[in-house]
Amino acid sequence: MVKKFNKAAANANANDGSKADGNLLATVKESSSHIWLAGLGAFSKAQEEGSKVFEALVKEGTGLQKKFRKFADSQVSDVTNEVSGKITEATSKAAGAWDRLETVFEDRVGRAVGRLGVPTKADIAKLTARVEELTKTVQKLSAGKVPVAVKAAAVAKPAAAKPVVVKPVAAKPVAAKPAARKPAAKKAVSK
């Protein structure tokens, strides 16, 4: 294209001016037409190839998105598992600390109650078993000696009979409160 234009310009300088101007004008027209047609051809080719390239880019983007999603999901899964493990570990440590604190508290309360003379659960269980045993023994003894007791009562003087006092079964003892301490006497200050 440029060669034709240069050739036409060289001929115009060598030949007559009006004929050269006509040749130059025709060459410019022909060149512009070819440029226009080349542009249309490039546009058409870009449209054809562009859709193919566009589809190829979409396909490649879809593949990359799938890879990224798998990677992101695996990272989220790893982080979730790690955080879950840390939470489980922290929970077990907290539970262990709570158990130790509870044991210390129970021991201290037990010692304080022991100092006050309050019976423990084991002491109450022993006493309950002993009371039940004694109750059975009393029932056996009183079942066998009831007639003897009636005869003794008939022989005895009727006016001197004493009323029978029934004692209740051992109740839970109430802890006595320690007496309030008196403040120490103040020493007299000599002048």
In brief:
The protein has 191 residues and is an all-alpha fold. 77% of the residues lie in helices and 0% in strands.
Protein described:
This protein is mainly α. It has one domain. 77% of the residues lie in helices and 0% in strands. The protein contains three helices and no strands. The chain has helices spanning 2-14, 17-116, 121-155. The termini are far apart. The relative contact order is 0.03. The model has no long low-confidence stretch (mean pLDDT 77).
SSE layout and pairing:
Blueprint: H1 2-14, H2 17-116, H3 121-155
Helix pairs in contact: 1-2
Taking pLDDT < 50 over at least 5 consecutive residues as the criterion, the unreliable ranges are none
Order of helices and strands: HHH
**Percent of residues in beta strands:** under 5%
Q: Provide the gyration radius in Å.
A: 59 Å
Straight-line N-to-C gap:
134 Å
Q: Quote the average pLDDT.
A: 77
Main sheet makeup: none
The percent range for helix content is over 70%
Supply the number of helical segments: 3
Shape: rod-shaped
How many domains in all? 1
